[in-house]
# Entry
Amino acid sequence: MSAKVFFYCLKVWLASVLLGPVLFWLCLMRLDDDASYTFPNFLGFWGYTILYGLGFSLVSFLMFLLAETYIAHRNWPGHRRRAVTALLGILLTLIPFLIFLGTLHFSNDAISIAFCLSYLLPVLAGIYFYRLMAP
# Structure
């Protein structure tokens, strides 16, 4: 495993862990009119969700790192590497939600959908924003 692959995976993972709660907070502001949405409440929520996000997604990060190490050693074109990495990112983001929420069938549960998407979108953005580095 090279340091370049490790830091690529770390940047993608941290994008989700740090930006996911922000996106979810913004979605909550739109979906729930009854709650208090002040800046001190946001900071407490953000810190709390970052700690939980780090803990709950650590296994996904390690699996992503191992898979990305394998992908980086393939002689695939860049677009194929990104597509496979994006598919891997989708799976490794949704599987923990499937485990912890018990289902991915949300039907009309807008908050659960926003919760999943708020972490999935930064993963996909990170995969396409950060340069996929080969060893």
